[in-house]
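Kindly review these tokens for lecture notes.

. . .
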Amino acid sequence: MISPHDPNTIYAAGNVLLKSTNEGQTWEPISPDLTRNDKSKQASSGGDITKDNTSVEYYCTIFAFMESPLQKGVMWAGSDDGLVHVTTDGGKNWQNVTPKNMPELGLISIIDASAHDAGTAYVAMTRYKHDDFKPYIYKTSDYGKTWTPITKGIPDGAFTRTVREDPKRKGLLYAGTETGMYVSFDDGANWQSLQRNLPVVPITDIAVKENDLVVSTQGRSFWILDDLTPLHQLSDKVAATTHLFKPRGAYRFGGGSFPVPNAGQNPPNGVVVYYYLKTKPEGDIRLEFLDAKGDTIKTFSSKEKKDEGGGGGGFLAEFFGITGDPNKLAKEAGMNRFVWDMRYADAVNTPGAVLWGGNLRGPIASPGNYGVRLIVGNQTLTGSFEIKADPRLNLPLADYQKQFDFLIKVRDKISAAHEGVNFIREVRKQVDDLSKRVSDAGTDGKAVTAAAKDLNEKMKAIEEEILQVKAKSSQDPLNFPIKLNNKIAVLADVASSMDAAPTDASVAVFNRLSAKLDAQLAKLKEIREKDVPAFNQLVREQAVPAIMVSKKGTGGMK
């Protein structure tokens, strides 16, 4: 074990506790024999012909040890023959504090020194080698002077191998037994199952790392329960009503993964939001993400199939047994989970448009403070969270903001391009429909059809500069060059390919492409403000009927 107070101090345990301050070059005993030192348990193992001294047969050994994370010099030791000792002065003096009501000759499997109180510790003991499969967990709050057994709720047969206290919430305990996981919210007075989707398997040890619960099992690999923050906040009051849990901070980093047979699954990359609903709401519920100013970044709903920006949202945890549209909120009674991928709304899309490289995805939020708002009926619940920078990078926060600002400009410029094309296509469709109706009805509308053709030609020329209209499949850009929208969209890929401020070249290219696009949009604005109204005026002057009947057929009418 490494001392929590000095990384240059390490401990190793035999029948005595040893200490080294020079990386193991020399060791100093800092305790007497802390076992029963029963010589009958120290003979060679095996028969007369073959011995079996492979170390698992050794007894009279310190099996569990921990130094208090709060108070230097407070150390706990437990032996494999059922003794518990403590020192409060770094090993100068040791006291035998074995619980008086604990059966003898058990194996002290784990000692967990509290992260909240220096005098508090928890001990897990097993006696299955004596055919005793009862759970044994003890707690002291006075440096071992008195102990209390705390196993209510853990059934006989689920003998306890480990116990750990949550370092963030005092009295929140986790117990690993021969048949699975248990949790206590009241310092061990009561326990309940925390099995979820964990296999029924012996839990040999537990560690809480950055608010994740990590367990080692006997034969079924390592398992991790992601994000303990809901357990930190859970209470009877919370469980009695609708509640939005405060999300834990999320790291901003890219990357992905590919499915690998028999491998574990990575946690979701994003901001995990838990919310509890006492009952299933009748109407729609919404979840809004806000920037530091309180402005809405993105809104998700239990009703909508997709958010307004399209793409990128969250998903429901598999262990809650709920699946569905990643952008759709669950509103089931009980615990619900949603993951926001930290992205702003996507660029406006043009249906059927083909992009060669580039993307329409909204940029990822910069590191900083953000808010979340849950709206259920007439009830609004709010919370806050932090998006953290990748700790492996030495990037100034200002550069993150420069990257974000640039990507927002790129996104908005792509949106402007596609909004222009969408406008052109909408107008052209109406103009074409009107021209066809005039022609089919045999109406003398030459002036209208001529004006329609002229208007469409003007818009078509603009559309073809903005977007490659000949591209219908992903391979078509090999034959037909990409246009302004695609060239600008490629900049989104370039600028977001790493965490860094945009290069000067990227900014220069964007400015040049933006100027070209703005020129086309200026032409389109003139068409919208002059040509389209002029065309509408011509249609009114020509008195084109609102309903025109084709002369190609009368439907059997005389």
